[in-house]
Amino acid sequence: ANGGTEADNAALTDLDPTTTWTSDPLVRANEWSDSVTGIELHLGEARYVHRVNGWGTPTLPAGVQGWHGGNSVAIAVQEADGGEWKTIVTHGSLTRDARGLWYWDFNSYHLAKNIRIWMNDETEPQTPQNIATAVTFNDVEVWGLPAGKTPVAPAVDNSMYERYSGFNPGEGKWGVNRAQALALQYGVMMPAWVPSEGYGRGGFDANERDLTGGAFPMFYDLPMFNTAMMESLGKGAPWALAKAPTGKNSMCNAGEPRDFMNDYMKPYASTLVDIQYGDEGGFNRVESECFKNWFSWSKQNIPGAVVHANSWDDPSWYRDTNLSYYVENAKPDLLSWDKYYWGANGGPAPSRVVMDLLGTNTWKKQREYGLKGLTGDGSSPILYGQYLDYNWDANVSASEKSIVPSLGLATGQKWFGLFRMEYNGYDRSSIIDHDGAPTRSFYEFSNIFGNVTYIGNYTKAMNSTFVAYKPGQYAARGATPSLSGYK
């Protein structure tokens, strides 16, 4: 512990949760110094390490929710005593998972004899206004390989992803419009929000990705890429962007359309297959024009990438006049939104679940205007789909996990964004244990995603123009519901 006593130092690694070290007040700095709030760990000999786990508590301002972060965290490694320190994490977080765990993942192995962890001045990536005033550590663990062992890259087979590489849908080239050509080529897409490099948050490797049956990474924070993750997934792996081009919500604030690919991205440009420009902004016609300009530029310069905005369940995005104007003028390939139906405190009742989901205003209207399409008369439909919330600390039942994508496929959805495939990011985690092993929840979701991919191979060529509901017997249902669809 920086500036700590012998007892403070012992408390950090004695695996006794009752012994602690507290830094009060919290002192932050971009570079390590004798005065900054931090910890220096000595491993005895150099070994390859992949992450640090910690247990503790940030002291947050009055009224701030306990799951908020509190400060940005930096981590550096040193291969040998007296050697150069290499900073590998710059935007880590004091956000803890539901069990009070900090899980700082390096995204790849780094040779280290010594490790420094400290509170830095970078913007806390999740809740920057809620800066911690102090922090308490109970214990710290370093996870890596035994001394003398070197990491072995796993074998990667990306043959199932070949359809994502270098595709140009053209316009009318395949007898259908651009959006439909992309759907026929790619099937039902499942981009998963994952951390960019420098954030100290983990994401899937090639083996875990393959278990999902087709999910691929979607980066959303600057620098909008994670080289270590993409290297681990192997050549030809598809990827996507959210909040393009710069990790922000507004498009008009992004300036004029331009080449935004940085040096991290360019070697992987041929497999960029989905670009969500901005995120969750309210609808207005000025912003719609900015989307139009970016979509047009993107179709010309990155033709293989689906282009779209994304809304939450916002009334401005399910008004007829707004959706009609947006689709026919901005000409997205896809309408997408996020609305999460279950949480720790409940969700739709089994007796009403189908009606409640299909009765959601955004679901109804985005489906309708996806089918009306670019011309407004149904002759040139575009795609629609929604985000699935699958990485919260509330581990809902397998049937609750599966009902949204099942109804989505039945009503013609061609895209499911996965929110989020991260280990102890903003949403904490029910998909891994503290040692990083996938949980039962991870495998339940993976089975569902695999089924989506399989069924999507058949539904990708279909427009779902009518929804009918055939009610069965259910004790809690008082009356027979009815549902009609858009024709």
Q: Any overview of this molecule?
A:
22% of the residues lie in helices and 23% in strands. It has 487 residues and is α/β, with parallel strands linked by helices. It folds into 2 domains: 9-144, Sandwich (Jelly Rolls); 159-459, Alpha-Beta Barrel (TIM Barrel), CATH 3.20.20.80. Helix 5 packs parallel to helix 6 (320-330), helix 6 runs parallel beside helix 8 and helix 9 (398-410) packs parallel to helix 10. It is globular.
Instruction: Please identify which CATH superfamily of the largest domain we are dealing with.
Output: Glycosidases
Strand content: 15-25%
As residue ranges, the low-confidence spans are: none
Q: Give the CATH architecture of the largest domain.
A: Alpha-Beta Barrel
Beta-strand segment tally: 15
Calculate the terminal CA-CA distance, rounded to whole Å. 67 Å
Identify the strand order in the major beta sheet: 1-6-2-5-3-4
Radius of gyration based on Cα positions: 24 Å
Structural class determined from secondary elements: alpha/beta
What coarse outline follows from CA principal-axis ratios?
globular
Number of DSSP helices? Answer: 10
Total individual domains = 2
Largest sheet: 6 strands, antiparallel
Oligomer class: single chain
Helicity level, as a percent range?
10-25%
What is CATH's topology name of the largest domain?
TIM Barrel
